[in-house]
Amino acid sequence: MGLSNLGIFHTIIGIVAIVAAVVAFVRNGKIDLSRVTGKIYFYFTVVTSLTALGLSHVKGVNPGHILALLVLILVSLAYYLYLKKKGNNKFRYLENFSLSFSFFLSMIPTVNETFNRIPVGHPLVHGPKDPLIGKTLLLLFVMLIVGSILQLRRQRKINKSL
Q1: How far apart are CA 77 and CA 139, in angstroms?
Q2: CA-CA distance, 24 to 55, in Å (whole number)?
Q3: Of 8, 32, 40, 94, which sits 20 to 30 A from 25 (CA to CA)?
Q4: What share of the chain has pLDDT > 90, as a percent?
Q5: Torsion angle of alpha carbons 70, 8, 24, 133, nearest 10°?
Q6: Is the bond preceding residue 119 a cis peptide, omega within 30 degrees?
Q7: For 1-17, what is each residue's pLDDT tens digit?
C-alpha cells in the first residue's frame, strides 16, 4: 500500500472515527457529543484532521489540507456549541449539522483513498475522477441531505417538548 508510519496512524485513527460516527448515526440518528460514540468521533476526527495536514505527495497546501481544516472548524464549532450553549436548544440544529457535514467531508478523501488502494494490487478505481468515486460521493451527499432533514425534524420535536 505504500503508507508511511504517519499514514498508517492516520488511517487507523480515521477508521475508529468513522466507525464511531456510523454507530452514533445508527443508535441515535446523530453524532451526540454527550455519548461515548460522539466523544470518540470528536477526538479521533481532530487527530485525523491534524495528521492529514502532514500527509501529502504535493508540496504546499492542497485540497486535502483544505478539507482537513474545514472538518476541524466544523467539529470545533459543534464542540463549542455543545459546551457553551447547553441551555439553548436552537443551537442543536447547527451542532447536529456541523457534525454530520464534517462526517461527509471526511468521507471525500476516505472514499478516494480507499477505492484507489483496495483491493491491494487491483484497486476498484484508477484515479480520483473515476465515475465510481463520483457516484459513491453523490450517494453519501444524498444521505447527508436526508439525514439532516430527519435530524432537523427530530430536533424540532425535542425543542417543542422542552
Answers
A1: 26
A2: 28
A3: 8
A4: 77
A5: 70
A6: yes
A7: 578 899 899 999 999 99
Q: Rounded to whole angstroms, how far apart are CA atoms 24 and 7? A: 25
- What average pLDDT is seen over the chain? 93
Secondary structure of 71-121 in HEC code, one letter for each residue? HHHHHHHHHHHHHHCCCCCCHHHHHHHHHHHHHHHHHHHHHHHHHHHCCCC
Task: Tell me which residue has cell 456541523.
Answer: 98
Domain count, the chain: 1
Residue where the block lists cell 465510481: 132
C-alpha cell at 61: 497546501
Q: Which residues, at least 6 apart from 54, have a Cβ–Cβ distance to it below 8 Å? A: 6
Instruction: For residue range 140-159, list pLDDT tens digits in order.
Output: 999 999 999 999 999 999 88
CB 110 within 8 A of CB 133: no
Segment holding 142, helix H or strand E: helix 131-161
Give, as one character, the DSSP assignment of residue 29. S
Is the model's pLDDT at 86 over the cut of 80? no
Q: What number is the average pLDDT over the span 81-109?
A: 92
